[in-house]
Amino acid sequence: MTFDPKSMSCDHFQSQLAELVGSGADVANHPHIKECEICRQLYEDLQTIADAAKQLLAEEQPEDDLWDRIESAIKKGD
Amino acid sequence: MPRTRFPKQNPEASAPEPEKEERAVQLQDPAAEVAPRRAAPLSPEAEILARAQAGDHAAFAHLYSLHKRRIYSLCLRMVGNVAEAEDLTQEAFLQLHRKIGTFRGDSAFSTWLHRLSINVVLMHLRKKGLPLMSLDEAMEPSYDDGPGRSFGAPDLSLAGSIDRLALERAVAALPAGYRLIFVLHDVEGFEHNEIAAMLDCSVGNSKSQLHKARLKLRDALRLTLNKGGKR
Questions:
Q1: Inside any domain, residue B149
Q2: Which CATH number is B136's domain given?
Q3: Domain co-membership, B113 together with B138
Q4: Which of residues 196-225 of B touch A (CB under 8 A)?
Q5: Cβ atoms of residues B183 and B171 within 8 Å
Q6: How confident is the model at residue B126 (pLDDT cuts 50, 70, 90)?
Q7: What pLDDT digit, counting tens, does each position of B15-30 carry?
Q8: Does B164 lie in the same domain as B112?
Q9: A24 confidence band (pLDDT: 50, 70, 90)
Q10: Considering chain B, what percentage of its residues have pLDDT values greater than 90?
Q11: Mutation site for A-interface testing, chosen from B215, B223, B226 by largest number of A Cβ within 10 Å
Q12: Are residues B111 and B138 in the same domain?
């Protein structure tokens, strides 16, 4: 008897989602995703978050006096 | 962000620890690799690096000005706290000052410095008592407060509705272990095998923690959307 991914429960699918996503599987075309709107939206949300994370690479500026502190520590031989 | 590759400065020096797990970032024109080394003049950045390696303090200050934003941002994302991030940026540049002579140019300088800085942050987190070697046990949220599975009718979709500030706040509020994996993978672009090596955990553990971090963020961002009355 073969396992039918379409008939898997949301619980079962979601328990496998970390591994599926992490291994680079084509989750968007997974049979369960095609049948289940809840899991499809969950997957899309997680992908949206992963994509949005790139926004956080925008660079922040440290305080101006940080170099003074570093220079002072270098002079002290830290 | 493009990563500048510097030519070898000191082939005799031993490899520093941060280089061991370097990603193979090759942005340079491959043709440049076969050009005779002596014919290629040093780029301005490579010259600054060479001078800093020779002990030129002004050149080191210049290196700081070139890389301070990138390193400070990395520290800030990893610890979620401005004061700690500044202390860690300071420590990263002090370590750079001590180790700069060992940089051999086998990888991009910016990649090497980036890795050195991550090691500084990880060391700091370990000193704080964050047992990175057993992430599952250390950071696994209790059953009650962990990210739940998604059941019931779909309602809010996050597509097109995540703004940077909301995401920043949500990431800063993550438990430390989740934040670390999320920043290393989704923000900084490391692969699971690299993260597993850095944190001394399994690849499966890294995947699982990242998934839980994203679930936590989803909950937090949906809550923000609900409060804002947006759909």
A1: no
A2: 1.10.10.10
A3: no
A4: 203-204, 206-208, 210-212, 214-215, 217-218, 221-222
A5: yes
A6: confident
A7: 344 443 344 333 344 4
A8: no
A9: confident
A10: 46
A11: B215
A12: no
State the complex-level ipTM.
0.82
pLDDT tens digit sequence for B144-195: 344 455 555 456 677 777 888 889 889 988 988 899 999 999 999 999 999 9
Contact across the interface for A18 and B211, Cβ inside 8 Å: yes
For residue B90, list chain A residues with Cβ-Cβ distance below 8 A: 66, 69-70, 73
Contacts with B154 from chain A: Cβ below 8 Å: 37-38, 41
Nearest CA in chain A to B64: A67
Whether residue B150 is contained in a domain is answered as no
Give the number of domains in chain B.
Answer: 2
In the predicted model, what is the mean pLDDT of chain B? 77
Q: Which domain holds residue B180?
A: 132-144+158-228
DSSP B70-91: HHHHHHHHHH--HHHHHHHHHH
